[in-house]
Amino acid sequence: QVQLVESGGGLVQPGGSLRLSCAASGSIFRLRTMGWYRQAPGKQRELVATITSGSSTNYADSVKGRFTISRDKNTVYLQMNSLKPEDTAVYYCNGAPPIGGSVYWGQGTQVTVSS
């Protein structure tokens, strides 16, 4: 089984930074598009950023200029700068298998932005 494990979440003050990591294990194949999503209490899960195997990126308007997604094989990162309280959420990573099938999801990591 393929597993994605996020790390790097925590409590940070507004204006601060965090770097999230998500490592995939259980597969020798490179995942295709990988991404980060987040879900705040009472809200739907929303797209934060995605990155393809060719390193093409896409960002939600709310994080453009502040967040940067990157990857190294089957590990995806999210550098979050200038954090705002509205960034508070559980952040999940996912990745698409190389040959069809359902995407894989991590268990989530909590990010709390508060003074």
Write the layout of secondary structure elements.
Blueprint: E1 3-7, E2 10-12, E3 18-25, E4 34-39, E5 46-51, E6 57-59, E7 67-72, E8 75-80, E9 89-95, E10 104-105, E11 109-113
Parallel strand pairs: 2-11
Antiparallel strand pairs: 1-3, 3-8, 4-5, 4-9, 5-6, 7-8, 9-10, 9-11
Tell me what you see in this structure.
- With 115 residues, this protein is mainly beta.
- It is 0% helix and 50% strand.
- It has strands at residues 3-7, 10-12, 18-25, 34-39, 46-51, 57-59, 67-72, 75-80, 89-95, 104-105, 109-113.
- The strands form 2 sheets. Strands 2, 4, 5, 6, 9, 10 and 11 form a 7-stranded mixed beta sheet that branches. The protein has a 4-stranded antiparallel beta sheet with strand order 1-3-8-7, with no helix packed on it.
- Strand 5 (46-51) and strand 6 (57-59) form a beta hairpin.
- It starts with a strand and ends with a strand.
- The mean pLDDT is 94.
Which terms would index this structure?
mainly beta, 11 strands, four-stranded antiparallel beta sheet, seven-stranded mixed beta sheet, 115 residues
Q: What would you call the shape? A: globular
Span between termini: 40 Å
Portion of residues in beta strands equals over 45%
Alpha carbon gyration radius:
14 Å
What's the quick description here?
The protein is 0% helix and 50% strand.
